[in-house]
Design goal:
This protein has 103 residues and is an all-alpha fold. It has three helices and no strands. It is elongated and about 55 Å long. The termini are far apart.
Length: 103
Amino acid sequence: MLQIGLTHYLVLSAILFSLGILGVVTRRNAILVLMGIELILNAANINFIAFSRYGTFNLDGQMAAIFVIVLAAAEAAIVLAIVLNIYKTFHTVNVDEINKLKE
């Protein structure tokens, strides 16, 4: 029987973090960049929960994860509002095509 340890959580977190960084760096669509940022934040949450479970942080890691989830929800709402306004103005959501803030 395979036991899941701290290493498994850290590997999963590293994979999610790498995929998030890859999404942020390689994608041009603002929505996909936002999804990459969400993956990065979820990787951090996995680390917080794993260290809370296997470390000596008790509930501090879980409280930090809840704070990150609330922060991510607020960030997503703000970024989606900004993306909608950018689309309304420029008719595109590609971040490399939006190089003028005043148009």
